[in-house]
Specification:
single chain; 10 helices; about 0% strand
Length: about 240
């Protein structure tokens, strides 16, 4: 690939992540969080919590697991970047990524922020997209498998404590969402090996009248899949 084409490709990726796409989801997310806290937080109920050794123990376990998760996320980012980042810098980037994901709707803002910040580092914009899309695929598939394992262990109460059957409203919603995420994950995974086909499918979908307003986003997803495929196919099988 010529240097001119690489520059054009990187500019295309960066242009897809405007300031509005990064900031607006954050503002919306923070607003929703504030509204939820205002409507649902009951100070009297909070004061009823007995801060005994048992509570502190499980709170400590939760914090430990979160820290452990963050460490593994950082190490994963370090590996995916071909060790372009130091572990310390990877930790900092994951903090930014996690913060954006936590306050933005459906983590879309988090991915946009991740692409933006990663592309400002030592790696190319195309590689930044590859890292983000690859982590989305891996996280989605891990989440789906984990849900199945947990459901086998705990059964319907995993969804709601009082549930006895998956044929109830929440159970049906859970099943539909799970299959939607499965389709989403399989489609993206398949796209890593057949990126041109996925791109054509997305471009075809973009022609549907009521989806046309999303056509630019669908086109960009198609480009991202192609870029990611190029990066992943150059990796060894152990990767």
């Amino acid at each position: 690939m010529s240097s001119k084409k690489k520059i054009k490709e990187q500019e295309s990726v960066l242009n897809s992540v405007s300031g509005t796409k990064v900031i607006l989801p954050m503002v919306i997310g923070l607003g929703v969080i504030g509204l939820l806290i205002y409507n649902q937080l009951d100070p009297e109920e909070f004061l009823k919590i007995k801060w005994n050794a048992r509570v502190w123990f499980w709170l400590g376990c939760a914090i430990f697991i979160y820290v452990l998760r963050h460490i593994f996320y950082s190490y994963r980012l370090k590996i995916l970047s071909d060790h372009e980042f130091s572990f310390k810098h990877a930790v900092e980037l994951v903090f930014i990524w996690e913060f954006a994901s936590s306050i933005s709707p459906t983590s879309i803002g988090g991915s946009a922020v991740a692409v933006f910040f990663l592309s400002q580092e030592k790696i190319s914009a195309a590689k930044a997209v590859s890292i983000v899309l690859y982590t989305v695929i891996v996280d989605t598939l891990f989440f789906l498998v984990s849900l199945v394992i947990l459901f086998i262990i705990f059964g319907p109460p995993l969804i709601r404590p009082d549930m006895t059957s998956m044929l109830e409203g929440y159970g049906i919603t859970f099943i539909l969402v799970w299959f939607f995420m499965l389709l989403y994950g399989v489609l993206l995974t398949w796209g890593l090996f057949r990126p041109r086909i996925i791109k054509r499918i997305l471009m075809t979908i973009a022609r549907i009248p009521f989806i046309r307003k999303f056509r630019l986003k669908l086109y960009q997803i198609g480009e991202d899949v192609v870029i990611t495929s190029k990066e992943i196919r150059n990796r060894p099988l152990s990767f």
